[in-house]
């Protein structure tokens, strides 16, 4: 899956394997999934919009926040809940311009002497990492956000 966008079928496979959804849930989404949905709407948003409860015991809502935390754990990347008040925009944009970050569909959220923390909702797209590390002359730390 490395280098690819997160796909709805992949996420549904993992959720079903983890016992968080059942085949009925999967069939419901598979039937409404269109090519446009696959391209434009992130899979976690599509699933969260269904308003499902997990099929696990105890049951809990499969909200976007819950799904994002679950995904971060599945792909072994830290989860980050962004607090916009704690982001030093001036410091970050001195390292990565807003235009460059937008082009890459990433969100720089922190920088220190050795590390640049980048938030993304695409855990497998990483072709930008080595170039950005070289340009910024910093190590890249990836985090998952919703």
Report the C-alpha radius of gyration, rounded.
17 Å
**How are the strands of the largest sheet arranged?**
1-2-3
- Average pLDDT taken over every residue: 89
Shape, per Cα inertia axes = elongated
| Strand content bin | 5-15%
Distance between the termini: 19 Å
Specify the helix fraction band: 40-55%
Main β-sheet description: 3 strands, mixed
Instruction: Give the ordered list of helices and strands.
Output: HHHHHHHEEHE
Spans of at least 5 consecutive residues whose pLDDT stays below 50 are none
Task: Count every beta strand, where a strand is a DSSP E run of 2 or more residues.
Answer: 3
Helical stretch tally: 8
Kindly name the structural category: alpha+beta
Describe the structure in your own words.
This protein is α+β, with helices and mostly antiparallel strands. The protein has eight helices and three strands. It has helices at residues 8-17, 23-32, 35-40, 43-48, 64-74, 89-93, 98-104, 129-136; strands at residues 107-111, 115-120, 139-144. Strands 1-2-3 form a three-stranded mixed sheet. The radius of gyration is 17 Å and the shape is elongated.
């Amino acid at each position: 899956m490395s280098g690819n966008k997160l796909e709805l079928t992949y996420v549904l496979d993992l959720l079903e394997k983890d016992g968080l959804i059942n085949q009925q849930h999967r069939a419901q989404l598979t039937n409404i999934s269109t090519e446009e949905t696959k391209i434009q709407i992130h899979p976690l948003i599509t699933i969260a919009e269904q308003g499902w409860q997990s099929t696990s015991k105890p049951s809990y809502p499969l909200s976007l926040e819950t799904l994002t935390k679950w995904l971060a754990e599945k792909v072994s990347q830290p989860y980050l809940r962004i607090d916009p008040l704690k982001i030093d925009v001036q410091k970050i944009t001195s390292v990565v311009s807003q235009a460059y970050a937008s082009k890459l569909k990433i969100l720089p959220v922190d920088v220190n002497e050795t590390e640049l923390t980048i938030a993304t909702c695409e855990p497998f797209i990483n072709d930008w990492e080595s170039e950005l590390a070289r340009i910024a002359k910093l190590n890249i730390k990836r985090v998952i956000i919703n």
